[in-house]
């Protein structure tokens, strides 16, 4: 591959920014040049202030290390817009980064080309955020440490609190990936002490520390980290369980957003069942609202009083909402009997 020097240097820097470490042979193959050329280009990058480190040994290579100053990043058009959008929505499930995200966004917008600045400005004008009250939020520094460990297949340790916060212990894991579910972040990892795959809520995790020990990636017993998390959530025990028979085939029901595939079972080509679980009856009621008309539900009798209470609330609300409409049919919209006085003293109906 023929490239002039500036283009090749930019391509080399871009590669170094996408992965923690490259061998010289890998870089030479990617750029279509000799290993000697790669070495010369690495020296040029160092002269320009980029902290490119060389590692020795059988698996030695090159990596872009952290420096005292942040070197310029290379972003193509799509990456620049993606970063801008991400910064505008970066506060979901992560605490204390609103101000930092806005500062980074302001710096990015200053250096965007005019063609992209126009699109970003339009996005800013048309977008507004609603400050919903959320639950526990993850520490951004913990997310950064865990993400780097996932990328580098590096064993990490951290302190983890149980659901009840009564048991706190140190964990040592081989991280696989981070998953965002709603406003919560989860780490999928292999727990070396328990010799099993586990999921960890990042907001319950503190003091993550990389160990410096890298290991070959362990095969995950699922299609991906998101599928593994969904299966674990589906299998988690809950206080209450309802089973709904839904007039949909299993494939269609599993494809619905918010449905955990492992809770769906096929009955026939037109019908399937769905397990609804929760520790709070009100959360079960919210799930019932999403069922299709014609669905039937079975569950423990102890849930009946809770659901009946909620049902009465809905019924009272429906009646209250319908009452003004009934009154408007019989009377005027202003609460009168629907007539008006004329100037000659007679009355006429509106």
Key descriptive features of the protein:
single chain, 350 residues, alpha+beta, five-stranded antiparallel sheet, four-stranded antiparallel sheet, 11 helices, globular
**Beta-strand percent range:** 15-25%
Number of helices: 11
Cross-sheet strand order for the largest sheet: 6-5-4-3-7
The oligomeric state of the chains shown is: single chain
Distance between the termini: 84 Å
- β-strand number: 13
**Structural class by helix and strand composition:** alpha+beta
- Average pLDDT taken over every residue: 80
- The Rg value, from CA coordinates, equals 30 Å
Helix content: 25-40%
Principal-axis shape equals globular
Largest sheet: 5 strands, antiparallel
Order of helices and strands: HHHEEHHHHEEEEEHEHEEHEHEE
* Uncertain residue segments: 346-350
Describe the structure.
This protein is of the alpha+beta class and 350 residues long. It has helices at residues 5-18, 24-31, 35-47, 77-88, 98-111, 114-126, 140-152, 225-235, 250-254, 281-288, 304-330, and strands at 52-54, 62-64, 154-161, 168-181, 184-191, 196-201, 205-214, 240-246, 264-268, 271-278, 296-298, 339-341, 347-349. The strands form 4 sheets. Strands 6-5-4-3-7 form a 5-stranded antiparallel β-sheet. Strands 9-10-8-11 form a 4-stranded antiparallel β-sheet. A hairpin with a 4-residue loop joins strand 5 and strand 6. Helix 4 runs parallel beside helix 6. It starts with a helix and ends with a strand. 15% of the residues are buried. Mean pLDDT is 80; it is low at 346-350.
What would a concise description of this structure say?
The chain is an alpha+beta fold and 350 residues long.
